[in-house]
Write a structure and sequence with these properties.
The protein is α+β, with helices and mostly antiparallel strands. About 55% of the residues lie in helices and about 10% in strands. The N and C termini lie far apart (about 60 Å).
Length: about 650
């Protein structure tokens, strides 16, 4: 998707494009290695069995019988072209890396498993050596390009600009290919997902200059690739649909991304509400002859998205079944784009499940920092998604692991703690006291808080899919009432409500996800696991006691303010993504997904002083405990759903406000 020539910088592309193009330069050390390979080694490689040159080189190396110099050249070729870090590491260890082979030195360091900070330091030294010894050649630009890629992984724009300027200053003006590739790399960093719109626009401006240069020298294929990428950045990064359309229209039928550009042109048109034009483009697209099998699944998905956007009722199932080698940026955009639509419970859950599958399997192990920067900048419908974990190490003490939630502004602020500390015992104890008294006790039952402080329990930091029961309770018509009562009385009523509900919820082992003005969201089954039937039992008992608590609270409100308030409750059970979402500066321990959304919708259908539940909850209750209320059409749910009302503990229906009056 976000595909520039050097996006996610691959040395095989950068190195060959530069070194081969400038092989005639006798001062270019890289060219001497390249020249030996092309003239002495490649003929033997091509005469060896294998599906491609890389595999043939491997087979020739395994076969043996070659001179030490040729063997070293083969190892060098394999190291620079392999994608498996183990193969690269083995080749780097076996080959005799020359002191002036700065490109191979850099590639071996950047492909190793050492920390990124150490990579930056070591490659920075190699860059300085290459500038000192080979200034005036394209070697520093190649080394600098790889260093920029390492810095990019840290999302360090300031450091990136510093090294970019340093490399450009020592790159000869005659090395035009290297200069263009460096500019493309800078533009790629500026336009990567998660950057500000201002920075993305800067990147697009750089690409304008690069495209103009390619067209000046009649390299139309490269110019079209730049135009295609500009279209993608304008479409997905800036929501500039008209601008994206202009870029996609530059792609000719012979262009590599002609079909792709047509699909994204249709998507742009659909967002401009030009449905007929979008539909016409789709009719002309035939993906059966499309050759790039890695891109085909998500292109099929985007075609379905366009059809859905222009009201053709297309099934979006293909968008939640993308193969694992799909580009991460595609999954990121699709999740952001589709989460704004009402897709129905099953499809929405599949979307979130796919997102976390890609995130935990692809991004967390490989590019944690970069992904965090992208996710932190992207606002989803239900949450900001990010997962950054740091160890908490205490000097001379055992590790203290605490992940907790706290409401500060508008009763909704979560904080994820895994601080790295080496401080005195008194400060640690002070922190623990603050956490215990001011934070955890506000959201978790006291027994669970004690277990967390004592290290017997913890709240999982990594979001994961679990079965939970979600309860929503909301004060009926309180917004209108507060306008009549004034801020002082309204605040007092809210505080009484929250105190009463907190006591009841904790008594039944519930976790307060958040207070939302005059409403509360409660979880059962997380962070402490419980079987579905047990979740149902405790959530229903909690809901019943919440209603009784409101009756008691109203006695005081009548006496003090001559008013009464009532609540309605909705409960649903099912799979949800539960865990800590956010950054080290702000995080929420929460649950997201269709199960949560449906619980909120059910609460909205309940009468005052009534508990309304879904079929998933009702199936665990005795028939005498519930009453069928009929089929309801709920927002975001494709089919009608049967809802049930819960009777009181003695199997009588709870009164409604209308009955009471």
């Amino acid at each position: 998707m976000y595909r520039l020539a050097v996006t996610l910088f691959m040395i095989s592309a950068f190195y060959r494009a530069s070194a081969v193009a400038e092989i005639s330069d006798p001062s270019n050390i890289i060219s001497s290695y390249n020249k030996f390979y092309l003239e002495e080694v490649q003929p033997q490689v091509l005469n060896t069995q294998g599906e491609n040159e890389y595999e043939k080189a491997q087979n020739l190396l395994k076969k043996g019988g070659v001179s030490p110099k040729i063997r070293s050249a083969l190892l060098r070729y394999i190291a620079l072209n392999a994608t498996d870090t183990k193969i690269i590491g083995d080749a780097c260890r076996e080959t005799d890396i020359q002191a002036d082979d700065f490109v191979l030195q850099t590639w071996c360091v950047s492909s190793s498993e050492i920390p990124n900070t150490q990579k930056r330091k070591e490659v920075g030294i190699i860059l300085d050596n290459s500038i000192a010894k080979l200034r005036g050649t394209n070697v520093p630009s190649l080394v600098g390009g790889m260093l920029l890629d390492i810095i990019w992984a840290d999302n360090d724009i300031v450091g990136y600009r510093t090294i970019y300027k340093k490399v450009m200053d020592v790159t000869p003006r005659s090395a035009k290919r290297s200069i263009l590739l460096l500019k493309e790399q800078l533009a790629s960093a500026y336009t990567s997902p998660g950057q500000s719109t201002k920075l993305i626009q800067e990147g697009i401006n750089i690409l304008d200059d690069i495209e103009a240069e390619y067209r000046r020298v009649h390299e139309d294929e490269e110019a079209e690739l730049i135009a295609y990428n500009k279209g993608i950045f304008k479409l997905l990064g800036l929501d500039d649909y008209a601008g994206a359309l202009r870029e996609f229209q530059k792609i000719t039928p012979k262009g590599q991304y002609f079909v792709d550009s047509k699909i994204f042109s249709a998507l742009s048109l659909s967002q401009l509400r030009k449905n007929e034009e979008a539909s016409k483009i789709l009719r002309d697209i035939d993906l059966r002859s499309y050759t790039d099998q890695k891109r085909l699944p998500f292109l099929n998905c985007y075609m379905s998205v366009v059809k859905h956007e222009i009201n053709q009722q297309e099934d979006l199932g293909s968008c939640v079944k993308l193969p694992i080698d799909t580009q991460w940026e595609v999954v990121l955009h699709l999740t952001k784009f589709l989460s704004r639509r009402h897709l129905g419970t099953e499809l929405e859950l599949g979307l979130w499940r796919q997102f976390w599958h890609f995130y935990t399997d692809q991004i967390v192990p490989q590019k944690q920092t970069e992904a965090e920067g992208q996710i932190n900048a992207m606002e989803f419908e239900t949450a900001k998604l990010e997962n950054q974990v740091k160890d908490l190490e205490l000097k001379n003490f055992q590790k203290l692991k605490i992940v907790f939630t706290v409401t500060l502004a508008a009763f909704l602020m979560g904080i994820l703690f895994f601080f790295r500390l080496s401080r005195q015992k008194a400060k640690v104890e002070k922190l623990q006291t603050y956490i215990h008294k001011s934070v955890l006790n506000r959201f978790l039952p006291p027994t669970l808080v004690d277990e967390i402080i004592n290290g017997k329990s913890s709240i999982e930091s990594d979001p994961r899919e679990v079965c939970i029961t979600v309860l929503f309770a909301d004060m009926v018509n309180f917004t209108a009432l507060s306008g009549q009562l004034g801020a002082g009385i309204s605040s007092e009523i809210l505080n009484r409500f929250m105190r009463q509900m907190t006591e009841v919820i904790f008594h039944h082992g519930g976790t307060i996800d958040k207070f939302m003005g005059d409403a509360v969201m409660v979880l059962f089954g997380a962070p402490v696991h419980a079987a579905p039937v047990e979740q149902t039992k405790t959530s229903i008992a909690c809901a019943r006691e919440m209603l009784r608590a409101m009756d008691l609270m109203n006695e005081g409100l009548k006496q003090d303010f001559q008013v009464t308030v009532d609540i309605r409750i909705g409960i649903n059970q099912g799979p949800a993504i539960v865990g800590t979402f956010g950054s080290e500066k702000r995080s929420d321990y929460t649950a997201i997904g269709p199960t949560v959304n449906l619980a909120s919708r059910i609460e909205g259908k309940a009468h005052p002083h009534e508990i309304m539940i879904s079929p998933e909850v009702a199936k665990y209750l005795h028939p005498e405990e519930i009453e069928q209320r009929g089929l309801y059409k709920l927002k975001g749910v494709q089919d009608e759903i049967m809802l049930f009302a819960v009777k009181s503990a003695d199997h009588r229906m709870y009164r409604t406000t209308r009955e009471a009056s």
